[in-house]
Write a structure and sequence with these properties.
This protein has five helices and two strands, in the order E-E-H-H-H-H-H. By secondary structure, the protein is mainly alpha-helical. The protein has a two-stranded antiparallel ribbon. Helix 2 runs antiparallel to helix 3 and helix 3 crosses helix 4. The protein is elongated, with a radius of gyration of 25 Å.
Length: 154
């Protein structure tokens, strides 16, 4: 099983729970992959299934709200990742996706902090601002400033 980690671990499957032994299978709290449901819920199959359906529905609602927030005002991506975190409390696939996403975000943050990349980003930002300023200056020189409330009917 490739979880995108550089470390090796043995996969163990037991009664509805999958976990990877060793450092690769542990999250920040030292727990393996699988359900985070309370033990009394996991002990009863019907209760555990209904628990999983409830977690899936709540996670789906949160992810759907995040997708709606992408074009509308709101923290769309944050809400989507929150929904993924809700799913990750119960589903291994969501835990693996969340682990991969965390790794990619960390890598991107490290790349963004590289001095060479920062200098390039600052130079591109300054160049973009100069171009926008030049275009705005040409527009104002050509057409002048006309405020909307002073437009006369023609």
């Amino acid at each position: 099983m490739n979880t995108g980690s550089d470390q090796q671990g043995d996969v163990v499957a037991a009664a509805g729970e999958v976990r990877v032994e060793g450092p690769a299978g542990e999250d920040g709290a030292g727990r393996g992959l699988g359900s985070r449901a309370p033990e009394f819920v996991k002990a009863r199959r019907a209760l555990h299934l209904s628990w999983q359906v409830g977690v899936f529905v709540v996670g789906l609602a949160v992810v759907a709200a995040g997708v709606v927030m992408l074009p509308l005002p709101g923290p769309g991506w944050v809400v989507i990742f929150g929904g993924m975190a809700i799913w990750a409390t119960e589903f291994v696939w969501a835990q693996l996706v969340l682990r991969w996403t965390k790794r990619k975000v960390t890598e991107a943050a490290q790349r963004a902090l590289d001095p060479k990349v920062r200098r390039r980003n600052i130079a591109l930002t300054v160049l973009g601002l100069v171009i926008i300023g030049a275009v705005a200056g040409v527009y104002l020189w050509k057409f002048g400033v006309v405020v909307p409330w002073k437009i006369q009917d023609q």
